[in-house]
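Homework help board

Subject: predicted structure for assignment chain

Our instructor gave us this sequence and asked us to write out the predicted structure in token form, then describe one feature. I got the tokens but I'm not sure how to describe them. Can anyone check?
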Amino acid sequence: MGRKIPMWQVAIVMIVTIGLLCYALNIFHMLFYNGQDTSPLYCGYGELHVPLIFAATLAAIIAIINGYKWKFLENGIIASISRSMQACLILLVVGMLIGSWIASGVVPAMIYYGLMILSPGVFLVASCLICCIVSLASGSSWTTAGTIGIALVGVGFGLGINPAMTAGAIVSGAYFGDKMSPLSDTTNMAPAVAGSTLFEHIRHMIWTVTPSLIIALVIYAILGLGNASRDVDMSAVKELQDALIGSFNINPALLIPPLLVIVMVALKTPALPGLIGGTVLGVIMGMIFQGIAVGDIFGLLHYGYESVTGNADIDNLLTRGGMDSMLWTVNLIICAMTIGGVMDSSGMLAQLAEAMLKLARNVGSLVTVTIVSCLFMNVIASDQYLAIILPGRMYREAFEDMRLKNKNLSRCLEDSGTMTSPLVPWNTCGATMSTFLGVPTVQYIPYAFLNLLNPIVSIFYGFTGISMEKMTEAEYKVVLANRKADKAAALKALEA
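My token output:
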């Protein structure tokens, strides 16, 4: 272990990191993004991998100068990357799922039938609500975006909806469930860190998520009115549907795999087995309805599906999937977790949280500091789990000393830690949403209204006191007694 790193040195790491990432976002974006290519190669923003490694190198050098051994920092990096391994495995499996569902006709069928029943005027509202329901049932924003979300992007494209608007509505709906579902890992993590219980945490989040969702749906409805006033080129829609029918055997039975995946996850089947089951179902459907040869299955799952319908728009939309398509994002996650590991193990992230805590003078400012800290951790550490765990650990006693019940803290952690994670391009969630939906993070951010509004509503409640439930003196005395017992146990363990 080294000594406490001076705050000015931590500030240098922060400034250089943000500067490098902003340079990549702006300069590389202009050089490489032509407004049409949405492949995972660039994802609409620059190559962020090398800037993250450069920033991690600087952070490691400063840590070593302050007495931290490289082995200690390396262990911190490995621990950080280990936290993201489940996410990386899910990404690879979703890549296979996307490839199998496109090749089998599952995604084309969802697009085909979606074009029949959805109109431009209600599309954004319907997309958000559909994703709310699916993510609430599955507890996974990634599963929602990687399955239903892909089809909705295709439907929106056929209806002439701006893909960024569609992606924003999908992300808003998907993260509603990620925040509110008892099956979600973050929904369980936040109360565990803050000291509240799962269901009191979920009930307390209704206060902030309900007005945020209502406002978001109203905005989507207003945007929908603008789309409704525009005549849809039905010949173009018919052309897309004809291209789908000409290349795939469209059958209502192809809607069974997504329904079964939702059922499996709702029945608390772990994410990976559920997604693998969906992939297997996709392959079986492909063999039955599209005549996929057994010898083509491995290549399809690894490299994805290449569409050759003859319709350029459909081909661009459906040429995707496979494990190989997810490696860019997996690599980005590993690079992001590298700098997160260095800054976490060297105490830099904890110092940032401590510095922020000094600004908390009252309930409103404490809530604001917590919200900003979670956002900042999503930006710097690139990981929503750290964005929940670290501020949760740092601010728990501050909330308790202001006589605020623990569920107030757990709600703040989700209002920002969970909800802002897909708004950061190099965060694991932002990179994943962009890869799944084929829309750059920086483009869908203005339309992810639920994610943008939720932290603001939370801060508003902090300053007004609305729903900020307080402890009784008796409850606070119990908290102090438990705190004293925990410190005594820790001291005893240290002496042993």
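Reply (TA_rk): Your tokens look well-formed. For the description, you could write something like this. Residues 27-45 have pLDDT under 50 and may be disordered. That's the kind of observation they're looking for.
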